[in-house]
Amino acid sequence: MRVPSPKQRVFIETGRKEFVRNGYGSSSIRTIAQEAGVSLSALYYHYKNKQDLLLAILMDGVDTYDAVCDAELARAGDDPVEQLCAFVRGNVKFRTQFPDQGRLIATEVRNLEPEGARLYEERRRVGRSRMRDIVEAGVAAGLFTTKYPDDCRRSILAMVSAIANWYDPAGPDTPDMIADRYAELALNLLCPNGLPRTPNDGREQE
Amino acid sequence: MRVPSPKQRVFIETGRKEFVRNGYGSSSIRTIAQEAGVSLSALYYHYKNKQDLLLAILMDGVDTYDAVCDAELARAGDDPVEQLCAFVRGNVKFRTQFPDQGRLIATEVRNLEPEGARLYEERRRVGRSRMRDIVEAGVAAGLFTTKYPDDCRRSILAMVSAIANWYDPAGPDTPDMIADRYAELALNLLCPNGLPRTPNDGREQE
């Protein structure tokens, strides 16, 4: 999917707020145009209907998620434990810094019509393989000793997603503190007998 | 809230199907009455509007959740480990046997208007304290040695909820198999250094 233009970005931001507030079904494309300060036909020039805008908003959410995760993964080394911690950190950042994007993914994907759902699923598949690859690499290296790597993968994704339900930007927990705790919990799942060796063993932290 | 009458039960089942299919915003109370085989005024005799029916459907979902969990907890002994495993089993049963109830709780609670939201939250609080009590009892008994009991509690709830996203009744995993695996994963989180054999025996295990 193409990167949204500055004008499209305005529609995406306005539409996201409206969908979060009212839900997709009760949101009106007319209201979104009004709140974006443009005519309805100006909006229709970019998105042919509400469905088309929903798809753009969800795709933008996935783009944001991918960018946040990939930035963390790029900073981490090749070690599966480091990669896992970076992935958890990226997910915590996404859920705490972009809560509306995460919320819409959780609630409105089911409102995509078949063609949009197909495009969206295809797009998501890339992101899912990221976590799968890390877990497989950790299992292959003998680091992740769990008997249930698939359940762990799904559980870790669910755990970090749920942070959005209770995270309070004004509360005492910073995203970094939360990321550290959840990385530890993720490792408790993947390494039920403890890690064979500590992460960054004998190495300087970046 | 009163137990729904047989007639109300028909509206709850029909409305739930419609809300799962179209989302609350796009669902029509007229269609629900039609599919239930009654006139619109017959439906309005029991529920004053779509909002009122949504609240009844969500409350019915919580009733089902509570009944399934409490049945499992009643079968378990007082030991927090047994209670935790029973709670996980109850959650797995709810997610696998009543997927639509769980799905609506995940997606439509935010469509409740303030008064309904207040009633619903009050009702949910009871259920939440169930898991909180188990975790606190396990921590007090020295069985759950995690440094992060609150994160574990939230994580376990998120993990078991997400089972609904991939569970396939035609697949190879029975709810009992899933419950056993997830109870083990929940204990990996709560007891990161392994489970002491009996409470208060003062021994540490690797």
Automatic annotation (TrEMBL), chains A, B:
This is TetR/AcrR family transcriptional regulator. Residues 28-47 bind DNA. Residues 5-65 form the HTH tetR-type domain. The keyword DNA-binding applies. Pfam families: TetR_C_24 (PF17932), TetR_N (PF00440). The keyword Cell membrane does not apply. The lineage of its organism: Bacteria, Bacillati, Actinomycetota, Actinomycetes, Mycobacteriales. It comes from the Bacteria. Keywords: DNA-binding. InterPro entries: Homeodomain-like_sf, HTH-type_TetR-like_transc_reg, HTH_TetR, KstR2_TetR_C, Tet_transcr_reg_TetR-rel_C_sf.
